[in-house]
Design brief:
Layout lengths: L6 E4 L5 E5 L4 E8 L2 E4 L2 E8 L2 E4 L4 E13 L2 E14 L4 E8 L2 E3 L4 E8 L17 H7 L16
Parallel strand pairs: 1-3, 2-4, 3-5, 4-6, 5-7, 6-7, 7-8, 8-9, 8-10, 9-11
Length: 156
């Protein structure tokens, strides 16, 4: 029997929408307003004007369209961000990333194609001192960009 695609919409007032918890698997298409977190297994697509967070135990084979995306787990697919993509040291990413900014911690495994367009604003040559972890600054919307250019087929 053919499988049907599942669509999920979440109300705008929700701050954090943890739809796929650890030990859970979900297959389908998700449209979310707010923050969407994956700590389990996800196959499908995610579309949001908000943020997507894939935790260390998260595994996703999908297309992601979001303002900001933080990856700590395993992702295979196309990623499109209108603001930035943050790749934590525990992450494995295979696929295409398109974003104005990319922030990658040391130890990331990345295979695919990057299209980093730049933030369109001036940045100093030396980053200023920051308070809090990358995730905490990202939630507050205060993470500063790391300027990069287009890199293709790179493993970091």
């Amino acid at each position: 029997m053919p499988q049907k695609s599942v669509g999920v919409a979440v109300e705008e007032h929700a701050l954090f929408n943890s739809l796929v918890g650890e030990g859970t698997s979900f297959k389908g298409d998700v449209t979310v307003n707010g923050i969407f977190r994956i700590d389990g297994d996800f196959v499908g697509s995610i579309k949001t004007k908000g943020k997507v967070f894939i935790g260390r135990t998260g595994r996703a084979e999908c297309t992601i369209q979001a303002s900001s995306i933080v990856i700590g787990g395993i992702v295979s697919g196309n990623i499109v961000s209108t603001e930035k993509v943050v790749i934590l040291s525990s992450a494995v990413v295979m696929g295409q990333i398109q974003a104005p900014r990319l922030i990658a911690e040391e130890g990331v495994l990345l295979q695919g194609e990057l299209h980093i367009t730049g933030a369109g604003r001036e940045t100093s040559q030396f980053p200023s001192k920051r308070n809090g972890s990358i995730f905490q600054r990202w939630i507050r919307g205060r993470e500063e960009p790391v300027q990069t250019t287009s890199i293709q087929g790179t493993t970091l």
